[in-house]
Amino acid sequence: TDRRKALSAAIASGQALEVFTRWVGAQKGDTRCCENPQRLPQAPLQEGVQASRTGYLTAIDAFDVGLAVHMAGAGRNHPGEAVDPGAGVVLHRKQGERVRAGDLLATLYAGSGERLAAARPHLMQAMRIGDSPVESEGVVVRRVDAEERVEELES
Q1: Mean pLDDT, residues 35-41
Q2: What is the pTM of this model?
Q3: CB 128 within 8 A of CB 60
């Protein structure tokens, strides 16, 4: 589609990185990490989540991924609570892809074994494998502007 072409062009030209860098700077983040991701903090513990069986990755539930990230230490339960900047998840596969039992689907990062253990079931639950392929949904389904007008987008 035209949106995908525009997105690809923005990435290729470096415009997308420039905008992302401004977002990071506006939130008082270290903009040097945008050009050099190795500068980002990394949690000391990591664990891969593997496909339990052969099939198709039919869904990646964003809510469960978010819970996993939260439990790994990247979220707060109370205002002012510390956040582990190295905690999180890296997804290695996309919805709709064929996977084989044992394939690496995601990597979970946490600062302690307790946090890793608390996050693991949420991430495993997020990755759903089925027997039939599924069509991937559009990346952006609607746009909301500053005046809160909603525009439905084609996928």
Answers
A1: 90
A2: 0.76
A3: yes
